[in-house]
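note to self: dont lose this again. the chain is below, predicted strucutre after it. 193 aa total, dont forget to put it in the shared folder this time
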Amino acid sequence: MSAPVAKPVRMTVEEYLDWSKTLPDTENYELYDGVPVAMAGDSLRHNLTKGALFRALQDAVAAAGLPCAVFTDGVNVKINTYNARIPDCSVQCGPLGDLDSMLVKPVILAEVTSPSSAKDDSGAKLMDYFTVASIRHYLIVRPDQGVIVHHHRIADADIRTALVRDGVLTLDPPGLSFDVATVLAAVPSAPGS
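---
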């Protein structure tokens, strides 16, 4: 996480959303304990992997004929009164609600790790995301290790984890599947490696 912006006032998620509408489109913040925190830009590896994941999820939704929308980063998910996160990819099925606001009932959230985010993605975000009742799947894509960590809610307090390195990953609900290799192979190998 980057350093908080110079704004000492503690904001609610709703105040943060109003404030964020005044920012240029090139600036992204998450709300952490009432304070907007600037998000760092992507590395090329991160961006390529995130794009591949978005395409894989979008293609899977279309192939399954689901009434779902797939989003890439920049879309807020409300965790509680003073916290809103922006996952790298998300899926929401059914009505979207106010299109100028945030996701109301996301079912899948995903993060692509980077050296600076791996700890937060596997710790605080894992805890935060599963406080949202609608979330059934949280994917952590680790391109450096060639694995997708799939956290899946079985029941309210029962979260299962699987390490997926190849094959097809099925996310049910909502009932979609994608080939893991298409996401993990998004970054070409460096010459000589």
